[in-house]
Amino acid sequence: MTFNQDSIDQAIGVLKQQFGDRLSVSRSVREQHGHTTTRMPNQPPDAVIFAENADEISSIMQTCHKLGCPVIAFGAGSSLEGHVNAPHGGISIDMSQLDQVLVVNNEDLDVVVQPGITREALNDFLRDSGLFFPIDPGANASIGGMAATGASGTNAVRYGTMRDNILGMQVVTADGRIVRVGGRARKSSAGYDLTRLFIGSEGTLGIITELTLRLQGIPEVIAGGICSFPNLHAACDAVIMTVQMGIPVARIELLDPLQVRACNAYSKLNLPEEPLLLVEFHGSAISVEDDVKRFAEICADLTHSPFQWSNEPEQRSKLWKARHDAYWAALALIPGAKAYATDVCVPISNLASCVEETIKDIKENGLTAPIVGHVGDGNFHVLPLAMPDDDAMNDKISAFAKRLTTRALAFGGTCTGEHGVGQGKRDSLREEMGDAVDLMAGIKASFDPVGILNPGKVFN
Amino acid sequence: MTFNQDSIDQAIGVLKQQFGDRLSVSRSVREQHGHTTTRMPNQPPDAVIFAENADEISSIMQTCHKLGCPVIAFGAGSSLEGHVNAPHGGISIDMSQLDQVLVVNNEDLDVVVQPGITREALNDFLRDSGLFFPIDPGANASIGGMAATGASGTNAVRYGTMRDNILGMQVVTADGRIVRVGGRARKSSAGYDLTRLFIGSEGTLGIITELTLRLQGIPEVIAGGICSFPNLHAACDAVIMTVQMGIPVARIELLDPLQVRACNAYSKLNLPEEPLLLVEFHGSAISVEDDVKRFAEICADLTHSPFQWSNEPEQRSKLWKARHDAYWAALALIPGAKAYATDVCVPISNLASCVEETIKDIKENGLTAPIVGHVGDGNFHVLPLAMPDDDAMNDKISAFAKRLTTRALAFGGTCTGEHGVGQGKRDSLREEMGDAVDLMAGIKASFDPVGILNPGKVFN
Questions:
Q1: A385 and A277 together in one domain
Q2: A161 exposed, middle or buried (CB, 10 Å; 0-12, 13-18, 19+)?
Q3: How many domains are contained in chain B?
Q4: Which residue of B has its CA nearest to A157?
């Protein structure tokens, strides 16, 4: 893919007329819209436009389609695989001004929002309605970005991922058409499922300008608890039995011994340096009590450590402190280090073995790399640390990340459970999906024949 | 779209060499593979091949792609919108020989099956494992057909539709490539969601030759119950409150007064001729008791009729008899009549109004058309009846069906919740989705440039 700098400059010239001060070419603004939150080198766009509505985005796309100028949608910049970098230059569309809640339908448990709203802002807005949007990827990401990357997080085991929680969208196509996909009905068999096709397409098929989301009632009772296990297999067996028994756990997280040690140091805790499971249950007082009781019985069969739990917000938060601080605790293992955040996902029957082999790999190669998992889904994150200037260690980490992906595939898993492909996992995508990548490329060519939508992502 | 009969005959000649007796051109076999279960006129293919594996299907596709011969995958023939008709002739591939369960992964709650297995055969096979596949469209459809049409049914409100319960598939493309999409991991952000794109594509994008399905644990306790309501709004309010309170109802079905009257006559029941809700709860003894109690409280607020329920299989089955016999009871309203089965789906806040207007339309036009709804999703079926030779009535019904679709769209709904587009709703798809249909057509052209996969379906 090659783009002509003259054409890009021409597109920026045309759009400058239209957007005035809302088009910026300042270095700091451009760098802020290249990637900043990951190991990826920053690749700033040539210009940033702060758009305000779908019509403006349609107009940008028409100009860029005609002239052949790359376009990258920018939400909150919290993605982890270089999704918002501009390796081919072009224009970044900052979506943060499209941050409105358009309609709340209480009876239907749905809401229509603009893509720039963050999930925390949305949930603040919804609080008085007794409803909430459950997907929680950790970062305060924008809803549009979460849709574009197919985000999920800690409570996907109960509520699903973005793919399960978006009913419909408005999308601007590469050539500037404004189309609607999906709708407000809970289900539909009307033609191809374009909604799910756009979800996780990482800005390469269209720009999302509106979303209809499924909401959940805020649970009457939330209980949180923790339990240590003598080894990974015992912890993972507890997860498997929980799922098999149909206990509707809302979150079930694993910390490996190194992550527990990091949390003890950072958050001044006293947890045994063993695999730790953290769980959360949502429901009525009676159903949560039943869930807790059944989960406690599972733990009693698999570990001598107590299952501690509470449905008091403060006490619950204390029990979950290790998880809440996990990222910062991990970073503090090597002061000044940067983290190379990566994720894979495997069938849960293979989770213990895959994590065990990964820890062995980490130890053999002298890495510092704690592990946190959304284990109800078999999804886990490894966070290898290195000083930014330690080239030898950074090379070691890159090689480790490649082995991790290959290992996950060998265990019947996927190269990414929730971070997406972006720039970082394009080779892994082909390794995992084989010829299916050609079908994806066919869709890309059909939707975006000039190739201007987020070039250099997903595909090599 | 035009196909050349000589080319079709040539393809059949080539394939006859390969398949011998497993390629049939007998009239009865061909007619049986045209549509038989609906109002659609039968349009038989030119030949039927009983394939045994993906390699054979790949070979059929290569031949048909080269020569330009239509190919239609045939599962159990239970779809309702003319999906398996052959309006352009060609070859029907009968998938019933691909009926094996390949792997059951107990710990991961998944199973790998061939597409020709029916859902009842699969659940019989699974029974001893304590697991089941929850999607229940009523008919004993094949799993491949259910995937191709994006089927759902009575318990989608709890377990989702086919879109939510397929992890991965093997698919043969139009030109005969065998590709894998999705996998066995519970979630993945690896590239475009081709799995969900093939689900509901009605055989127009590829032939599904293997599926990995999510399973559920057979619930410890199942409770069933029924309650009559003075009017549709009260019944629908009960549904809305149930969903809002997060009661994990497994099925929640509505019968309209005419359907209740039909059931009273057919199944010798004594139900009040008022809107009737039938519910089912799945879970532990304690959680089901809690669900029943909370649902009973909702009913008490909205109706004077009692909520009758049981967790004894026999008694439960008796309570649900009206629902189990509903289809036959409806047909018995006019002995000898044929039913024009149609479905739409609307946001549940609009369900009562949409059903009310529909009943008014039915009465005003002198139709006999009972209504049954999967109301937790806002999905309902209307079953207008007519004698096969009553042309005037059949014309009236066609006009009614068109109004029903337009009405559902006006209420923010979709032209089909679970039956699919097939031949019958191609105009409605454009009415509903607008320009998004062009994006769908672009995908179709990319996956099947010769247009041989199930031509005349989904698109005009």
A1: no
A2: buried
A3: 4
A4: B186
| Structure confidence at residue A1 (pLDDT) | 67
ipTM at complex level: 0.96
Q: What is the average pLDDT across B261-288?
A: 96
**Cβ atoms within 10 Å, residue B26:** 10
- Whether residue A149 lies within 8 A of chain B, CB to CB, comes out as yes
Last residue of a domain, one of B217, B243, B258: B217
Say which residue the tokens 């300042």 belong to: A26
Which residues 396-415 of A are in CB contact (within 8 Å) with B?
A: 412-415
**Residues 6+ positions from B207 with CB-CB distance below 8 Å:** B57, B61, B71, B73, B93, B171, B172, B453
CA-based end-to-end distance of chain B: 9
Are A141 and A179 members of one domain?
yes
Q: Does residue B418 contact residue B379 with C-beta atoms inside 8 Å? A: yes
**Domain boundary at B96, B123, B139, which?**
B96
Cβ separation of A107 and B240 shorter than 8 Å? yes
Find the closest chain B residue to A437 by CA distance.
B191
Shortest CA gap B248–chain A (Å):
10
Residue B459 resides in a domain: no
pTM for this one? Answer: 0.97
Instruction: Assess contact for A405 and A431: CB atoms under 8 A.
Output: yes
Query: What's the rounded Cα separation, in Å, for the pair B222 and B132?
Result: 14
**Chain A residues in contact with B240 (beta carbon < 8 A):** 107
- Å between A29 CA and nearest CA of chain B: 29
pLDDT of residue B1: 67
Structure tokens, A258: 């190194």
Report whether A161 contacts A135 (CB < 8 A): yes
Position B444 scores a pLDDT of 98
Q: Is B145 part of any domain?
A: yes
For a pLDDT cut of 90, what percent of chain A falls above it? 97
Average pLDDT over residues A122-150: 96
